[in-house]
Amino acid sequence: MKTTTPKILVIDDDVAIRNLIHRFLSLQSYRLESAADGESALSAFETFQPDLVVLDLNLPDISGFDLCKMLRNKADVLVVMLTCLNNTQQILQGFEQGADDYLTKPFDLHILLARIKAILRRSTHPNFRKNQSQIIVSDRLEIDPQACEVRLDDYPIALTALEYNLLYFLVNNPHRVWKRSELVNEIWNEEYLKQDRKVDVHIGQLRRKIGDTDNQLIQTIRGQGYKFEPPHNY
After folding, report:
1. Which of 84-88, 127-131, 147-151 is most confident?
2. Pair 35, 11: CB distance under 8 Å
């Protein structure tokens, strides 16, 4: 994440909501650009190069899910999705396409601001800035902290900033069982408010992406939490 003033791109076809978010976040000293549809969003994304995108799912010309995937393929950008329905499958699909967090409409602008601050804060959390010259190899999995890149069988895999931080933290703290509350504090850098589902969803996404289909690397300890258990040749 850049050390300059964070740049945020707001994508929403509702002009009232779009302008409201734009004005509110502008008052918080962020740099803002807005777009009303997928086509203008892609153009703005190329020229503005935002650090974070606030993305409504219901756009007139493209699915928000598809647009999220396209943006994440272009750059390692942070994404907060806005959805009208508190639908579990829709939320999971958003995470699948690379979203870092979501909010259900209607929402309080101060809650949106808090989520944005938390995402930006954890993306530069000091826990993930140590050992930057070290390359971690775990069986088929390689983590390059300098490039913030993860490769599986020598092929780069696309992780969100949160997923990268979660993996990096677990790999650097192996064998110990981490409670969900501890992971929320370390990775999300926020108070634990019974967010078991939040942690479980991201663990599941991470396992799938790194090829841990048998849950041997990131192990679930029933009733306690999760731990990273490296292979014997690690």
Report:
1. 147-151
2. yes
107 shares a domain with 15: yes
Q: What are phi and psi of 202, to 5 degrees?
A: -70, -35
> pLDDT by residue (tens digit) across 175-220?
899 998 888 888 876 665 565 677 888 899 899 999 888 888 999 9
* 3 state SS of 152: strand
pLDDT-based confidence at residue 105 (cuts at 50, 70, 90): confident
The boundaries of the domain holding residue 172 are: 131-228
Find out whether 49 and 75 touch, Cβ atoms under 8 Å.
Answer: yes
Rounded Cα distance, 205 and 158, in Å: 11
81 and 104 Cβ atoms separated by less than 8 Å: no
Give yes or no: residues 98 and 203 share one domain: no
Among 89, 123, 157, residue at a domain's last position:
123
- In contact, 136 and 143? CB cutoff 8 Å: yes
